[in-house]
Amino acid sequence: MKEHTLKELELVLGNHPALEGCRKDIEAAFDILLGCALSDGLIMTCGNGGSASDSAHIVGELMKGFKSRRPLNQRQVEALEFACPGEGKALADHLQQTIKAVALTDQAAISTAFANDVDPNMVFAQQVLGYGRRGDVLIGLSTSGNSKNVVNACKVAKAFGVKTIGFTGEAGGALAGLCDVTIRVPARETYRVQEYHLPVYHALCAMLEAEIF
Q1: How far lies 150's CA from each of 66, 79, 80, 153, 173, in Å?
Q2: Spatial distance between the Cα atoms of 89 and 81, rounded to a whole number of angstroms
């Protein structure tokens, strides 16, 4: 981990000292996410309710600049110029490098169709089956750790070589024994758990950006 990457983690832990006990799991989650990003893998996210919003929030921070602008590299600029002579630089000036990610919660058509036609507890699992490849990562957010659709998605991920990272409250629930890494924040009430989840995933997004770009 680069020095400036570590500073991003220290900044968040300094602002939220109660999360110090999660340090090792945050670092382990970072290693998994970094390996996925560097190999051009896909990071998938899922959750319910407020955790669905967090799921989309994570993707928003990964797919564009978070704390830095992330300008395109020369190879990307040249590819745009080759495809669109005279316009490549202008296009490049309005694009940013990305960490490939998708929120399974935002796929309304397949989610509602699968819930109606097959099984609502499998809506995320079906998408993991379709999108996931060995070396990809699934982030499952569940304050209890027991949300059936998130747990089922992690089971399918595990079967097909997709790494799993769980975000839960301190009890951990089923995700604690299922995921490759489970970040169990020190709270039990749903809203308090979600309040801690946000700085944790902000730390991870900032760390990835600092390390890669």
Answers
A1: 26, 39, 39, 5, 12
A2: 7
* Distance, CA of 164 to CA of 158 (rounded, Å): 7
Provide the residue type at 78 as one letter. E
Contact 181, 165 (CB under 8 A): yes
Which tens digits make up the pLDDT trace of 12-53?
A: 999 999 999 999 999 999 999 999 999 999 999 999 999 999
Bin 135: left if φ > 0, else alpha if -120 < ψ < 50, else beta: left
For residues 138 and 25, give the distance between their C-alpha atoms in angstroms, rounded to a whole number.
Answer: 15
SS3 category, 50: helix
How far is residue 161 from each of residues 94, 129, 156, 166, measured CA to CA in Å?
36, 11, 9, 16
CA gap 140, 165 in Å, rounded:
6
Q: Six-digit token pair at 124?
A: 């995320």
